[in-house]
Amino acid sequence: MNLVYEEGGEIKIASVQSASGAGDAETWQATSLSGKKIKLKAKEVWLRFEKPDAQVAMDEAGALTEEIDLQFLWDCAPDEEFGLVDVAHEYFGSQASVAQKLALAIALQGAPVFFRRKGRGRFQRAPLEQLQAGLAALERKQKELEQQSIWQRELVGGIFPETLKSSAKQLLFSPDKNTSAYKALIAACNETGESPAQLMIRCGAIDSPLAYHQGLFLKAHFPNGATHEPSIAIEQDVYDAAIAELPLAQVQAFSIDDSGTTEIDDALSVTELPEGGYRVGIHIAAPGLAISKDDPLDQVARNRMSTVYFPGDKITMLPDSVIEQFSLDEGMPRPALSIYVDLDEQGLVNRDSLQMRAELVPMAANLRLEDIEHLVSEESLLDEAASYPYRKELAILWRAAKHLHAGRQEKRVASGLRAEQLGLIDPNTLARDFHFQIQEIDGVQRVDIVPRQRGSILDTIVAEWMIFCNSVSGQLLADHGLPGLFRTQKGWGPQRTRMQTTPGPHEGLGIDYYAWCTSPLRRYSDLVNQWQLIALAKHGVTAKMVAPFPPRDATLMGIAADFESCYQAYGEFQDRLEKYWCLRWMMQDGESKTVHVRHLKDGMSRVELVPLHLPIPELASHPRLTRAEVVITEIDLLQLSAGVRVLEIEAKSETAKEIPIDTVTEVESENNPEEDASPN
C-alpha cells in the first residue's frame, strides 16, 4: 500500500512496510520515494492507494498538475471547508484517478492565493477580495521577475541598466537585498563569476577600483557626503569679536611644513632676551577662540573627528573658510595660543619661565621643507655666511632640541626602553616616509612615490618642540585639575597606547604628561584640549569653573572613545589607498616589475622602494630583514593583492641594519600627523 502525506510543505508518497493498530490509531512503518524510513500516523495521511506504483503515480501527477486551472478549481470549490477527495470529484468527476487526486493535492498545497489550508488534506477557498489582491500581487511579482531577468541579461552583457544608474552606489555599498535590482546583480555575478564591484566596473557603473575603495569609505563614514555645507562658517563679525582684545605678540614667527600643507597649525619664534639667552615661542592656531562647544562648527568637527589624509587628496575636519581664517599663513598677524619658555646660552630650557597666552602672532614666513631642508646641516647652522632664512633661529632651536631629546631618552631608558638615536636614520633601513604625487597625463592617472629619509635637523626641531608643547600642555591641565584628552603609553601588549581623560605618562616618548594640542585645525582632540587651555590662559586658577569640560565629564569620555575609533578607521583608509597606489605604481608601465623586498615576520615582507607590504611565504623561515629579489605579477586592484615570485634570496650579511620598532620619533607632518613613538 502507498500513502500520500505532506512534509515541509511538499506532497510526498511512501510505500508501507508494516502496519499496527486500527482505525484512527493505525500507524505505518514506510519508505519514502527517496529511501527515507519514516513512521506515519493515520491523521497524517491524505490518501491511500494500492495501484499504480508510487513513482508512476507521482510522475503522472506532476504532468497533470501543470494542466490544472486554479481559477476553475476555485469556482468549483464550495464556500465551506472541503476535503481533497470532495473537490477532486467536483473537478475531475466521480471516477477521479489516484494520479488526478494526487495532482490536485499538489495544486491545492501550492496555491495559497486561491485556497487556505485548514488541516491535513482540507482546504477552504479564499474570499473574492483576497483572491483579487493576491492575483494582483502575483502579477506584479511576475513583472518583477521579468524585469529582473532583463537586467540580469544586460549586466552579463556588460551594459548597466539605464534605470539603475542613479542608484548604482547604493546598489553596491548599501543594497536592499530584497529588491529586484540587487537580485539581478547577484544572479549576473553568479553567472559570470565576478564580484559585484568587478561587474559594475566592467559595466561602467563604477569608474575604477579607486572609486570603489573611496565609495566604500565614504558610505561608512560620510554617508551624507564629504563636502562641507557652505552655511557652516564663522561670520566675520564673530571672528572679529573673538580676536578683538587679543594683544599683538612682539615676535616674528615662522612655520616649517612640506609644500602640500594647507592647514598650518603651528609655528615657532625665537626672541633674544636683554639679560642673555632666548625666549622660544610655540604658536598654535586658535580656532577654539571662535568655535564654541556644541555650536554648529563644533558638531561638524565632532562628527568628523579629524582631517582624513590619503594620497592625492584629503577630507578636512573644518571648512576651508575656517581654515583660511585661522591657518598660520605668512603675511599678517594670526590668532594663536602661544607657549613661551626661556633658554640659556647653552640651549637648556628653564621650565620655571613657562608662560601661556592667547594673542595675535605676526607670521613672518612659511618655510617649506623642500626649499631649505637640504641646506640645513650642523655646519651650516654655525656658518654666519649661510644664506638660507632663519639660520640663527634654527641653530638656537636645534641646540635646545638636542637637550630636549636627551632628556626624553633618559626617561625612556628608565622605563626599560632603548634610547632613540638622534639624527638621520640609516638610509639602508626601512624607516622612511613617502610622498605620493598623483598626476593626470593624457587622461591617465600616474603616480610617483618619492621616499624621504627621517631624522633631518628640521624634522627633529619640529618634532621635539611639538612634543615639548604637548607635554607642557598636558602638565598645565594636570596641575590645574582640568580634564583633557591625554595620550598615554604604559606597559606592553595590545592597546598600550590609548586616549584617556586623566593624565598619565607616555613611556614611549619619555614624558610624564602628553596631551595632543598642536593640530586643532585638523584633529578634534586638539581642539577640545585647546578649549580647556584657553580657559586656563584667560582665567588662571578659576579655569575649572568656566572650562567647557568639567572634571569627570561623561561627554569628554565619549569623545575620547569616539576619537580613537574614528582615528583608527581613517588611518586604515589611508593605508588602504597607499597600498592601492603602490600597486598602481607597480603596474603603470605595463610590465611585471622586479623589485627588492625585506622580510619582516611571519612571511610578510615590504618592498624597499615603496611602502607596500606583501605576503611571501618563501621568506617565512628566514631572519628578519632578509633581502630578496622578486617579480610582482597578477595585481588585483580591487582585492589589493598581487602574486609574488622569488628570484633570489640574498645572504644575511648583505641585509640592512635592523632598527628597533620602538625608536621612531613622533613627527608632525601633513601625511603622518604626530604618530606615537611606538606602534600599539
Question: Low-confidence runs (pLDDT<50, min 5 residues)?
Answer: 653-680
Q: What is the count of DSSP helices, taking H or I runs of 4+ residues?
A: 19
Helix content: 25-40%
The strands making up the biggest β-sheet line up spatially as: 4-3-2-1-5
**Mean pLDDT across all amino acids:** 87
Structural class by secondary-structure content: alpha+beta
Percentage beta strand:
15-25%
Gross morphology is elongated
Overall strand count: 24
Rg value? 37 Å
**N/C terminus separation:** 74 Å
The major beta sheet can be summarized as: 5 strands, antiparallel
Lay out the secondary structure.
Blueprint: E1 2-7, E2 10-20, E3 27-32, E4 37-41, E5 45-49, H1 54-65, H2 70-76, E6 82-83, H3 84-92, H4 98-109, E7 115-119, E8 122-125, H5 128-156, H6 168-173, H7 180-192, H8 196-202, H9 209-221, H10 236-243, E9 253-257, E10 266-272, E11 278-285, H11 296-304, E12 308-310, E13 313-315, H12 320-326, E14 333-343, E15 349-368, H13 369-372, H14 378-382, H15 391-414, E16 432-441, E17 444-453, H16 457-479, E18 486-489, E19 497-500, H17 524-539, H18 543-546, H19 554-587, E20 593-601, E21 604-607, E22 613-615, E23 627-636, E24 641-649
Parallel strand pairs: 9-15
Antiparallel strand pairs: 1-2, 1-5, 2-3, 3-4, 6-8, 7-8, 10-11, 11-14, 12-13, 14-15, 16-17, 18-19, 20-21, 20-23, 21-22, 23-24
Helix pairs in contact: 1-4, 3-4, 5-7, 9-19, 15-16
